[in-house]
Design goal:
The complex is a heterodimer of chains A (747) and B (565).
Chain A lengths: L11 H9 L5 H5 L2 E3 L6 E3 L6 E6 L8 E7 L2 E7 L12 H4 L15 E3 L5 E3 L2 H19 L4 E5 L5 H14 L5 E3 L6 H11 L9 H5 L2 E5 L3 H4 L1 H8 L6 E5 L5 H5 L2 E3 L6 H14 L5 H7 E2 L1 H8 L4 H8 L3 H13 L3 E5 L1 H4 L4 H14 L9 E4 L6 H7 L14 H11 L14 H10 L4 E5 L3 H4 L3 H10 L2 E6 L12 E4 L5 E7 L4 E7 L10 H12 L11 H12 L12 H7 L2 E2 L5 H4 L19 E2 L18 E6 L16 H4 L7 E4 L1 H7 L6 E5 L4 E8 L7 E5 L25 E7 L7
Parallel strand pairs in A: 8-9, 8-16, 10-11, 10-14, 11-12, 13-22, 14-15, 16-17, 17-18, 23-27, 24-26
Antiparallel strand pairs in A: 1-2, 3-4, 4-5, 6-7, 6-18, 19-20, 20-21, 23-28, 24-27, 25-26, 25-28
Helix pairs in contact in A: 4-23, 5-23, 5-24, 6-17, 11-14, 11-15, 11-17, 14-15
Chain B lengths: L24 H12 L4 H5 L13 H4 L12 E8 L8 H9 L10 E7 L9 E5 L8 H5 L5 E3 L6 E3 L9 H5 L6 E3 L4 E3 L5 H5 L5 H5 L5 E7 H7 L20 E3 L8 E3 L12 H25 L7 H27 L18 H25 L5 H29 L9 H26 L3 H26 L9 H10 L3 H24 L3 H28 L13
Parallel strand pairs in B: 1-9
Antiparallel strand pairs in B: 1-8, 2-3, 2-10, 4-5, 6-7
Helix pairs in contact in B: 10-11, 10-13, 10-14, 10-18, 11-12, 11-14, 12-13, 13-14, 14-15, 14-18, 15-17, 17-18
Classes of the chains: A alpha/beta (747), B mainly alpha (565).
Amino acid sequence: MTTSTPPQSVSLAEQIKSLVHQREGRLTRELLLQPGRFGLGKVPAGAAPDATTTAVCGYCATGCGLNLHLQQGVATNLTPSTDYPVNLGMACPKGWEALSALDSPDRATTPLLRDASGQLRPVDWEHALEAFCSQFKAIQAEHGPQSVAFLSTGQIPTEELVMLGSLAKFGMGVIHGDGNTRQCMATAATAYKQSFGFDAPPQTYADFEESDVIFLIGANLCVGHPIMWERVLRNRRGGKVVVVDPRRTETAQAAWKHLAIRPKSDLAFLYGLAHVLIREGWVDREFIDAHTTGFDDFARHVEPFTPEFAAAAAGLDELQLLETAELIHDHERTSFWWTMGVNQSYEGVRTAQAIINLALMTRNIGRPGTGANSITGQCNAMGSRLFSNTTNLLGGRRFEDEGDRRDVADALGIPVERIPSHPSWAYDQIVEGIRTGEIRGLWVIATNPAHTWINQGDTRELLDKLDFLVVQDMYHNTDTARVADLVLPAAGWGEKEGTFINTERRLGLIKKVRRAPGQALADFTIFKLIAAAWGCDELFARWNCPEDVFQSIRDLSRGRPCDIWAITDYRTLDAAGSAQWPCTSEEQLHEPERRLFADGRFYHDDQRAKFLFDPPTPMPEPPDADYPLLLLTGRGAVSQWHTQTRTQKSAVLRKLYPQSIYVEINPADADVASVRTGDRITIESRRGAVTATAIVTAVVQPGQVFIPMHYEATNRLTLPHFDPHSRQPSYKDCAVRLRTSRSRLPK
Amino acid sequence: MSTVVANTSDAPPLDSLPSARPMTLADLVAGALAEQQQLSAVERFSQWHEHHDASPLQSRHYRSLMPANPPGAGEQYAFDVDLDACSGCKSCVVACHALNGLDKQESWRDVGLLMPADPAAPAVLQYVTTACHHCLEPACASGCPVNAYEKDPVTGIVRHLDDQCFGCTYCTMACPYEAPKYHAGKGIVRKCDMCTHRLADGEAPACVQSCPNEAIRITVVKTEEVRRQCGEGSLAPGAVTSAFTLPTTRFTSAKRDVSKFRPADEGHARPQHAHGALVVMLVLTQAAVGALAAVLAWAWLGGGWSTASGAQFLTGMATLAAMAAVVGVAAATLHLGRPQYAFRALLGVTHSWLSREIVAFGAFMPLAVAIAAAAWAMPYWPVAERLIPPALAAAVGSGLVAIWCSVKIYQFTRRPFWVGANTAAKFFLTAGVLGASVACAGAAWAGEPPSPVRAFAFATFFLTLAKVAFEVSQLRAIALTEQTSLASSAKLLRNALRLTTSWRLALGTMGGIVAPAISLLRASDTTTAWLALLACGLCLAGELLERTLFFQAVVPLKMPGGLPA
């Protein structure tokens, strides 16, 4: 509304008229819109900006650009960035509501220390730091430096990850540290490392638009990555979407073809596709010979995976498999995309590599609209993969490699002997270490293992077993913070600076546009204070702000596949908007979209990609007479993020998904159990039970049930088993049974 | 090249303090806390993002989703939704909230879900994004007692005048699509205005701007065409017939026949707001009309106030009726979000049953008070006695008209639990039950002869029997069919509202059936008086609960909702 009524000189008659029928006034003005300037269009007058700046979103690895509306430096509203090469002016509900997660009464505003009576009580930072150091040092003194471990995250900027990993491993003498990224994309990282020689997702999102055929394998973009789905819908080549997923998800329903394979039959199915492509000669022998190794062994390996065999294993018709192979052959550009359906599997690495193998042998790599492309989960999972200094040494290096250790010591200016030569345990091994008593102290940063770790009942018992548990988080009441001995209040996205790396290797900035509540501090600052309190701050004297760390990241990236040397500083990155690695020239800095491997050169020493494979193995806990159903878990609604510590803080997001846990059950199974939609039923596994609302739907196949992972109770049911290469937990296959109130069993 | 930008904050940076003494941990913490409160983005980065360009950058994404020209004569703007494109992300809901500066969970757009009617059919989750449909004959505007709705003659947008609204929430019941939303904090309703002011300047509404899948567009529709198309069918499965309000939104799907789908929340209704003030208002005003009608009937059948007991009966009944009327009307005012503007309620009298109800009760209440005053004045001012009969007739007449208006208010909403006899029977029988019950007690306490007391007890007995039987028949609707709205109401009454339902039936039975029966059979004069008073209280409590259930067990007309978890 652009008009406003001046209050003066209103006649009495008009005043009376207005009292009876009032067209304008205070309430109308509350919803006044005004031109937002800065290219924004109209915005609510109360939140109209006096300046704007951009930041990359802090939820998922899509990495959308957000335009923050500032009033005196404080963000009051946001809109998706119109010209950001990721999201093209759009955002999902989480992005739109990114600021409201900061305004919650659940924010941790002061350090909390568990006192003698067992209560968490506010303490000042000096006491908190003192407790942190004295407790962990005492544990290390008694049980060795490796007895304290840390669990990092994909939710904080790369600079903070570098500082955390360096402080823990080089400063505090910690050996074992891993991240929640283990639960989400360790499989993709390992698969790429083994196949390509470096953890390098090759794609750019433009590939969605450039493809003739888009394979989405274990990926529900409509729910998990809605902005990537936006890019799929912008495909103008008539791109055919083929979804491979046991569930008939929103994405599967919208696809050109849905292949509803049996859970964990993906490896056999993909080998079957390879078998047909090889048998028919639909492979690019020239490319294979020039740029890969191991193809002949692979060809022999897939010989038994005849269409009959593979289709039967996947629960498909033979024809469906043959047609799918033909589809790849008939089109110039096929891109393969996968996410948690593949990654969260006990044979996920080989499955991801089966996808990579298909792309390699058909030369669907390095060209527009192609690629074996992993879709990542968290906003900075990719930063974590390269720079968290947990199971890899900084920059995708190896702790065991003396040369790598020396590189890092030189880049950071620290003594090389501060760098441990032992590789770290993975997440599951750290958890097991608590059981065996080898891990006594644990420091958890921006993640929530009491909700997310597989077989939750056991995990919680183990967390209780720790001598000292520190949780550093934005909120004081996450499931894990509630059982901590010490809670350190952290600033969140929007309250600090740094960079994230998205799924397509794109670096973007986050900025400080909100004041953190109370005594909450940026994670970087907390790490600096801990270093000072621990007495190892001289190691990190060169890092006084996140941008100092960024300079070290540049140094650490030099000459590596992830080289970002041309991004000289934050201002350069900000001016460019964003930049994908590698970024070694001014030209690359200003390219909006870029993919890898156009030259067919991979990162192994011989510059060739490897064909890697193994025989499929049966799932360890298939449904049986006692537990006749298979439990699948996954994303529920777009407006839910992980353990909901943030999304549940937004009143408008809370409206958009079911507030209580629910379970999807096929009509055939529902009939047998006399279950109807809306009934409260109990789902039991050998490890635990949850009560949930039944949703009867053919989204799930007969014999399967699905529960979203966002609800706290879900992981009571899941079976702890892991991919042997990536150590990623397999969340999507365990046996369960239903119990209704009508069929209540005696205790 | 390594240009570390100077720390712009006033606080000392972590590494260097000018002082000579060594930094303590406390110094570091103090510095860190101060530094954390410094905001750096504007100084460091904003200069790269200054677009003083007046035209919205986002227009490149929505230009193709907007009509080429504004509506001409016989045309208006409308939402056009491509159901095939909607993937259910709900960005439109949140963008509506953010771009319109709405409060907390407030948004004027919702996304519902349709699933195949046959659960064994191939799974389809069909999301339906919905806001105000900017109807040709908006029920919100017809129902609004204060003329707070306007249909723009050029754009066809149904706009709500926030400053005119007094927060009666009737439009939230009248609209069959739940488009108007009540904002309790502000005491008014707010609703989608299709981002009128954006459209006026060629900008797209928030929902259109924000849909990643380009599922929502603005089109110009011919009103005659809308009229024709609304003749049959509804906007979505489970939604009311479009013939009711002539909604202009068009939902299209090239892939699916959504008529074979059902709303995901069908059969999973939740208890609605109890509207306590309206419960009190309805029951007390009906009781007042009933009480005066009982007096009128008593007079017509030969009762008179020339006797001491007759005068006492009249005075008591008139006083109770006046009090009930005053409290009832006052409660109605309290129900308003902004009661200071209650006087505006007369504006809608040509179209709003709520206005008409207020006018009718506006006539009834003073008459009831006047009758009470006259009854008290009779000993001192004999003329009063002659004024009472016509006043009584006028009061009962206006009261019955007022109750009829109350009935129409709820029938207008077309909610199955409220249409037809469902509301009329309850409201008029409440007047009857409470009128007879109060009269029974009044006559007994005034010392009237046994015959009128027995007559009123008899009336109470039969009227309550009829009413309770009617209510019980609604409980049995669950057996009719599985999925109708009435069955959902019955399910609510029997499950979620079970406790209230049980108490209501128990109180009604005790006060209106058992107690009158006892007094008819064997009670002495004194016990009759006490029993009648007790019965009266039980009946009142029972009716209040019945009216609470009336509001709580109704299933609103609406667009499809979400999963029932």
